[in-house]
């Protein structure tokens, strides 16, 4: 049985570089009438079943995939999971669009490129995912900086990340926390993700590599990253 849920889909485009064009979903190649955009198709066809609702918390599902030079989709991977059932359902619907994408290109030559889609799931619609993520981030920051309890702070940052995995301020806070706990690899991964997101939005962080960014976050030379 399908349960009521708020689902909002959006695409996180791959980063743009000189001479590059990104893959595009082409509705005219798709055999189903409702596919006037990839956003519309995901919103209308991802089914949020009762068993999935009972086994997940509100959150943002992020799935990455590669659009091949032939316009096929492959290489699916889960970046942030709402639940295993939702993972499977989103990938199932994305696979239906395989062959309906124009490939990306570099210097005029078709090339395989990775794309990401993000879907916000709020069971029954009674939840403000942005406000809750901001509240969790603020609590984590207070616990980390005032109470000096990074282990407890990390729980708040992880919960905030599940809600807003593409929010750079959450990644920055969690990276600092992981570094404080001695998890350098985890801190670097969050910094790498920040750089990827920044490039996809055509913004430029001062740091071009995750190691430099982590150093800036720890000594605060990178400035404050505002919640958006």
Automatic annotation (TrEMBL):
Residues 45-121 form the TonB C-terminal domain. GO terms for biological process: transmembrane transport. Gene3D superfamilies: 3.30.1150.10, Tetratricopeptide repeat domain (1.25.40.10). This is TonB C-terminal domain-containing protein. It comes from Salinimicrobium catena.
